[in-house]
Amino acid sequence: MSELLLDVENLTLGFRTERGLARILDGASLRIAPGQVMGLVGESGCGKTTLARAILGVLPAGGARIDGGSIAFRGRDLLREDPAIVARDLRGRAITFIPQDPFSSFNPVFTIGDQMMDLMKWKSPRRKGEGRWPALLQPYPRARRRADMEAVLEMLAAVQLPNPRAILRKYPHEVSGGQRQRLMIAMALLPEPDLVIADEPTTALDVTIQAQILGVIRRLATERRVAVLLTTHDLGSAWEICDAVTVMYAGQDVESAPIDAFFAAPAHPYTTRLLESLPRAPEEGGAADVGGIPGEVPSPLAQPAGCRFHPRCDRATEACRVVRPEETQLAAGHRLRCYHPRLPA
Amino acid sequence: MKRLELILSRLLWLVPTLIGLGVITFLISHVIPTDPVAILAGENATAEQIAALRRELGFDRPLPVQLLAYFQDLLRGDMGVSLFSQQPIAEELATRLPATLELTFAAVLLASAIGIPLGVVSALRRNSAIDHALRVVTVSGLAIPSFWLAIQLQYLFAMKVGIAPLNGRIDGFGPEPLTGMMILDSLLQADWESLGGALRHIALPAITLALPAAATIARFTRAGVLEVVTSNYVLYECAMGLPGALVTWKYVLRNALISTVTQIGLIFGVLLSGAVVVEAVFDWPGLGAFAVISIIQSDHRAVMGFTLWAGAIFVIVNLIVDVLHTLIDPRSTR
């Protein structure tokens, strides 16, 4: 496999709460190759959003405690480098963000154009180290501003927003949710990043808009060879646009596979149960009633030892209760953490 | 369009507000057990002389008649004549208004210039030593009575250190009056000597007025910033690596100021009433000093005149604040 773009290894972190440390991530690993669209799937509360935020460097200040692991982006460890330098050189440039809620993620009191041009002023790919001005006095060179504005208008057309110039003059509350998410996609791609982190980008939108937005993300990622980390609890979204999927359960990664292998030959008991729980048409062999997974997701305050899925797993043995399985490789790109995988006969 | 509607409706509201204010102060001034006529007539006046004077002034008529007569006069722009100076009250107030406006505006500017940055810093450094120190300062800023603070400032800066004058508005004649606000007038005429004098004179009373206001503004700004920094848009701006100073002083501050600006309008009312005390201590020739003299002399007409003017100023300032509000927050005009 080629050089990895993002390599999260054994990330372990928790939040201090009144009732003790909540271990949200426990040895979570995630790998993304350049240009790959990776789905990070799991139930609500499994740590997807926390993992995305850790990569973006916006964990809640004061509350989060990182106990181990690394986040390597093109070989640079984001957890150990100077945060100011990471913010200046990587955030908003090489790694950008499409937030979950486009309604509240725009600043309500500035025009869309103002916010986009501020982003371009600081994060435009045409920006070459410009002096050491204090941030508020930093000039915006005219020629670059004009070039950036052209890029913005081009990008707004690329995300299929009608009448780009008029939209730039509007305030966020004056455009629809779908349009706002298109604007967010545009802002994520304008700095010409290597990796876009899209945290449940369609959950807040109407069902009819969801597919369009996913389509835009997929098309632009392919055209511009940008890697995407798409967190979602919706396997359907993952199936539609991802190249590969990593499944998380209770703060741990359990299985990671290319999209075809994932749906055709899932090996981890949790993954197989997850796929069985999807409603399917009877002609595709689906059951009339949709079966859930017995048991509940464990509380982050009292996580079971070993493989965290063992209390709900019908294959669990003594070993599962004690030590978390090491990662094994089933096929190219198909990794698994399980002592008793379901292997094709 | 919406903004014009807002302004017009507020101006319309000014009328019932002032009527209510006039009725209330009129009734209060006639209920309190002081007799302006007796004071005016002097210590040696006989009961007959007092009764004659009362009739002459029209104070023997029933209250509703007096009230109606007062409002009739008001409609003609006549606020009556001061019992003691024999000057028309409206004229007296008009000559004193610029001094009070200058002082209160200076205090509001000073209070905002101190309070807003302090509020932002203490919110960003929440629960740090700076935050705790600021809390002590803001609470004491609210707790210290302004007359005491005024006297301390006079003692320290005017008498001990001697860098500010004890009282008054200006030495000598000051700039040619255009607006009546000396700082503005001396700026307009490039009269730097008068400007320096005016600034030195206004410093202590403005600080006295501004300190409690700055404390309130700091607390509101802090609360506003704390609310805004947990918002999704600040998370987004940080995740996109925008410079911290830009996020704080542009994106966070403007949102945090939405509630603070409303508060500043209300603070203006507090400043107007605070000016009554501060102007008396610093011998500042404004509305407040006039109100104090009028109250001491039981000159009810003059007190009512002051109250109506102060009420009108308060309503107009809050109208300006509401317009500012629509400029800061584009959502509020829709």
Automatic annotation (TrEMBL), chain A:
It is a peripheral membrane protein. Gene3D superfamilies: P-loop containing nucleotide triphosphate hydrolases. One of its GO terms (biological process) is peptide transport. Keywords: ATP-binding, Cell membrane, Membrane, Nucleotide-binding, Transport. It is found in: Cell inner membrane. It comes from the Bacteria. One of its GO terms (cellular component) is plasma membrane. GO terms for molecular function: ATP binding; ATP hydrolysis activity. PANTHER family: DIPEPTIDE TRANSPORT ATP-BINDING PROTEIN DPPD (PTHR43297:SF2), OLIGOPEPTIDE TRANSPORT ATP-BINDING PROTEIN APPD (PTHR43297). Belongs to the ABC transporter superfamily. This is Peptide ABC transporter ATP-binding protein. It comes from Teichococcus rhizosphaerae.
From TrEMBL, chain B:
Keywords: Cell membrane, Membrane, Transmembrane, Transmembrane helix, Transport. Residues 97-325 form the ABC transmembrane type-1 domain. The chain crosses the membrane at residues 12-32, 103-124, 136-157, 202-221, 264-282, 303-328. It is a multi-pass membrane protein. Its main location: membrane. It holds the Pfam family BPD_transp_1. One of its GO terms (molecular function) is dipeptide transmembrane transporter activity. GO terms for cellular component: plasma membrane. It comes from the Bacteria. It is found in: Cell membrane. The keyword Acetylation does not apply. Belongs to the binding-protein-dependent transport system permease family. This is D-Ala-D-Ala transporter.
